[in-house]
Protein 1
Amino acid sequence: MTRSPTLSRRALLRVTAIAGTGFMIGCEDPSVVDDNTNSASDTNTNIDTAPLTFNHFINISTDDTVTVVVKHLDKGQGVTTGLPAIVAEELGARWDQMRWQYSPADSTRYNNLFWGPVQGTGGSSSIANSWKQLRTAGAAAREMIINAAAKEWGVPATEITVSNGKAQHSSGKTASIGELAIAASQITPPTEPKLKLARDFKLIGVNASGKLPRMDSKEKSTGTAQYTIDVKRPNMLSAVMAHPPLFGATVKHVDDTKALQIEGVEHVLTTPRGVAVVAKHHWAALKGREALTIEWDDSAAEKRSSDELTAYLQKVVSEPMTAVREEGDIKKAFNESSKTIEMTFDFPYLAHATMEPMNCVLQLKNGECHIWTGSQVPTLDVGTVAAITGIPPENVHLHVQFAGGSFGRRAVPDSDYVAETAMIAKALGKTNPIKLQWTREDDMLGGRYRPMAHHQFQASLDNKGNLTGWHQRATAQSILRGTPFEAMISGAVDDSLTEGGKQLPYSVPNITVEAAEAEIGVPVLWWRSVGHTFNAYSTEVFLDEIAHASQQDPVELRKKLLTKHPKHKKVLELAADKSNWGSALPSNTARGIALHESFNTVVAQVAEVTLNGDGSYRVNKITCAVDCGIAVTPDVVKAQLEGGIGYGLSATMGEAITLKEGRVEQNNFHTYQPLRINQMPEIDVHIVESNEAPTGVGEPGTPPAGPAVANALRALTGKAITQLPIGPSVTT
Amino acid sequence: MTEFTLNGKTIQYDGDPTMPLLWYVRDLAELTGSKFGCGIAMCGACTMHVNGQATRSCSLPMSALDGATVVTIEGLSTAAGEAVKEAWQEHDVVQCGYCQSGQVMQAAALLATNAMPTDEDIDVAMQGNVCRCATYHRIRTAIHAAAKKLEA
């Protein structure tokens, strides 16, 4: 680290010849420029960490293409469109000249700015944390283009603008970004480039002139997009893993005689996480696994059933807890109340059930390791593999692939499936790349669920029907406790238990929110919107119970209680207005509303639900309003809200992981039932116009969907739904 | 020996007769556009056209293929197929994209037999194809758009 920042910056900004195709500015690392699939190691450890980070993010070629280096994983949320859009706007590029490529794993250059020295995708933060970083990068590149043109044309830089991919002078002189790329690459990058004003945005925001088509639409519509499951490497072998049937069980004895007789099966390996079968192809590996006889040691395994776990969670809630929010005097409020309302909620475990079951390709060769996987936290996975293999992290290279969904599943503190692949490769002791592919059953039985939860609520009303007291008590397993992320727990209790409940936006004079962590031997994980999933449901369904008890309209009650949160109120009113809240509906049809803030984005949804005579029901429509700051690519924002709503509906209506004597009872899509097209309502998304910095959209659509539907059903049946999932019908 | 055509090419197969078509296509023929999702014909990610019918290739053994015509997403070039692929892009249907090869194959098979499907027809034809990103309503919109395109 002896190089001066200035020298380092100059070095980074060298012009790099790329195999005769042109030149790129700001490309300090040729491995980023090539196909990034098996490139030379990135050994540039003397990284310049000065704020001129644009040189890590933008490559401009003389063929007039602008390539944005994407530090986040695309798991469907559209970062390969949204992140290039930010650059294109500031640079003044045309959308059709934009390209993208994944960055290598590198927490010094490609860290999530909200997380510190970790490269990662999650918490709906990709656009939000990149916003200023990529605008600055784009603006700096624009100024370099302008200065290059000024020099060439002998005119003042102030008379030059860049738009539609061209630098233009008032005299009529023009040159494309690509034509100026080489000259621009020799300009000293500005330290504080001037950013555009929001009102001057042309490509991004709700007032943009047209939709920016998704960058990944073509490859994903024609079967050419490459996911981890599609990775092909020379001499690659396929692996499957036999996992313990109970969480916490271990291998006691393996008889692999029959498995090794299966044609194509090459190795059976015992690892700390189970027994691996390595074969020429996946089908042979599967047949080999079927032929194994394994004796498991389940002495330390979790053996409880779901009903016992529910009873245990109820017991935790009946015992002393830690207050995470205390305002006013809840005891006094209840003592002086003229009416009290109580309700309890039970939430099941939920599987992420990504369409692509978990997988990883990994190769150990010449003291280096290459990993190909859809990773939400590349630098974490690299660290895990380094620890398992003994290879220094700088020699572990992760090549990020498209992920066939994730919803949090590909951000695992112990890197489960990546760790397994490393263990298999290490146990094998050969240089063959190993592709570990979980089956749907492995994936669904593999734990890392959204935790079960139990919530208890009490509210007090005064003699005028005003809400005077609100008391929530919540328990669930901690997601972070006992993981490398434990230090993120700021108080006595993992925040995920009450997130979204603790921040209840409604003005109630006396509020207490308490929580205690439960201990169960079933591995849990963040699941699209994490603790907001159960807290949005319980708080919003309970609030409708209060509205009913005090004979108030659910929208009017919320408006009355949102005096301190004008943004929430505006979003609520927009959803109510667009749904025609209050207008007449057939007698078997009703609306329900829910409002929730998560990841700094406020979302309100109105569900319109029809109840049939036999108790079955149909969600006809969800009207959704969202304030997410500037909507960089509004159509992608809408898609995320649509998808987030579908994910929330799916869980609320049909999903549950249950256990019988420690064994998970659902192992595939016939028993764990996801939402299908015939259940999908019409969805109408309205984005609040804003000049604030963008906030998350990947998760915030999910939390309000369930309670909006439950509140509509409550309006139809008079009964609140306090146990999820709702199932295909309700009691009328 | 099983003989069939895969995207127009004649294949002679004499391996494990129980191997599902999906794994033959992915691992041995090395065409990876068709995806593995469930292995029990419950999600549709592996959908191919076998003799023109949308078929779950994860549950079809190689022994059942003698004389069959198999088309995967890589070989989909019918008018309906092209219209579906275009409509998918025009409406930016995809999110993670993993299920979409199967969705496109299913939609192309639907339009081959029903030129102007209703929402209900679409629900019936497409409900075997799971999308965890819940792109369903865009799938509906894109199928209608493809139908209109084919009519024109």
Protein 2
Amino acid sequence: MAETATVKEAGKTKEPLFGKKEKALITDPLNDNNPITVQVLGVCSALAVTSLVYPSIVMAIAVIFVTSFSSLFTSMLRNYIPKQVRMIVQLVIIASLVTLVELTLKYLNYPIYKQLSVYIGLIITNCIVMGRLEAFSMANKPWRSFLDGIGNGLGYGAILIIVGLLREIFGKGSLFAGSGIAMNIIGPSPDYWINTNESFLFGWYTNNNLMVMSAAAMFIIGVLIWIQRSWNKKLVDVS
Amino acid sequence: MSTRYVITFVTIMTAIVAVLLTGFRQATKAQAELNEDIFNKRAILSAVEDYLGEGVTVASLTDDAVMNIFQTQVEQVVVDASGQVVDGMMADDIDMAKEKKKPEPQRKFPLYIYSEGGSKYYILAVRGTGLWDAIWGNIALKSDLNTVVGATFDHAGETPGLGAEIKDNPAFPAQFKGKEIYTDNGRYVSITVRKGGARDPEHEVDAITGATVTSDGVSDMLYDGIKNYEPYFDKVKQSSQLITQ
């Protein structure tokens, strides 16, 4: 009796609900192990959907949902999934969650569904999701896998939103275009976007069309990687 | 793990996922279809945005207001290739992508007639090909069936910042306002998107820099698309002449 009790207690103290390790699962992907800037995964969608902030935010939320819940479900099933069809089972989990996201967007906000178009469906092939399932969820308990999923989704989303902010401000002169709080930030054309208010700053600014194109995201992500490495010495390859 | 286990596992899992997704889809289907319908109706109304009323933009209309305009002010007509009105069909029922695949004499075209303050505006649907994929749009004509009062364009996959400007930059469709599709002596010329800048102020608009293929696609789409309605226009003009005589 006494023995089992101590084992139970030990088990409890070993894995608190939200201890240091759990916290690291969330914070690590934001910086030291960022899926985009460090692991260089999921770059395709990061280039494609970040020309405006609002779709970037929606995409980030969608990916956080898919990474966290696919990690949770895969981890719950990890001892039952036959090794031979491991990847296919993971793919079924991811694909059904992505379909859920797609249906929900159609239901809640059709214009944004149209705008994100194929990229919602392409979350299925986003390497971050599959990568985390293979590397983490197949070997860890559900709660931790769930946190790891959220962390990686957040790390991906953070980069998406930073890139989206820069591209929209300098490419369109606006912010949150397409949403209810669209506003014009810089540039002379207040009615460029249907919903914008009067322009109030930098009326001389001419929108930079390069920023609207996917290539700009490539440069911005490159610069972000550069900034992150010069500031976070852990990431610098000493060899 | 035995093959039997693998097969059982996969079958059960697929069944559960299928049931869940089908259920969710059924639950959200009605609203999703309504959303799509309103999205398309907004696109049609943006062609006559200037005539929606003082200070009213399509974006400022609520979903209910959009449906209301379609019920009270929009007449939906389907015309066939010979200009006859097809009885018992709504313009909403026409899928332009499917019509394009049919042989020309069998094609049907949607026509929305918007009435505001005693005048009628004819909103035509056109569809063509851009650089990468399909492009489509709506052109609104005055009741003289010659002067354009508005245009909207959309695309499946044109390049952002270049070809996608036909939709993203309101200055592009705005150029079409006031252009005419017939010359003064009645020859059909449509509206041309001219690379290097419009030369003929009545029938040409400026192309988009760096998007020549998309711009030419818009020209072709307009020429072929508006032409489809010509037999119908002739009939409308004839009947209105009969009335005036």
